[in-house]
Amino acid sequence: MSDTEKPDLRVVPADETGQSAGDEADAGPDDEARLSPKEIRFCDALSAGETSCQASKLAGITDRTGRRWRQRPEIQAAVRARLNDSLGAARAILACGAARACSALVTMADGSEPAESARVSACRAVTEGAVKLCEVAELEERLAALEAQLTNDGGKPRWT
Known about the structure:
Blueprint: H1 37-47, H2 52-59, H3 63-70, H4 73-109, H5 117-150
Helix pairs in contact: 1-2, 1-4, 2-3, 4-5
C-alpha cells in the first residue's frame, strides 16, 4: 500500500447467496454455509457496530428474532470471525504506519522538523496501538498453542 493510498475499511455486505463480495474462497464449509442471507446481513451489521435492534432492522427481522439469534453459537462465531478480521486489518494498518510514525518522531526529536503537539500525539498513538495489537495477537497465538497442548485427540484435558 502506498503512502497516499488509504485502506478500505468498509464492511462488505453479503449477496443473496450468503457470500461476501470478493470473499468466496474465505468462507469455510461449516461457517457461512449454514447461515441464511438474513443471518449474514445481521452478523455484518453487528460486526460493523450496529446495535441488535438496528442490525435486526437491517436484516429485515424483528428485534425479538435478533435477540434470539444473538444467543446462537453459529451467529456468535460469525460475528467473532468478522471482528477478528477487522482487528487483523487494523493491526496491519497500524504496523505499516508505525514505521512512518517512528520516523516522524525521530525527525521531530532531533529538530529536523518542528514538534507539533498534535502530530507527536498522533505518532505516539499509532506506535503504541501497533505494539499493543501485536502483543495481543502474540498472546492469542500462545494461548491457542497451550490449549492445543493441554487437550488430547478426544478434546478432554490430559489430567482428567
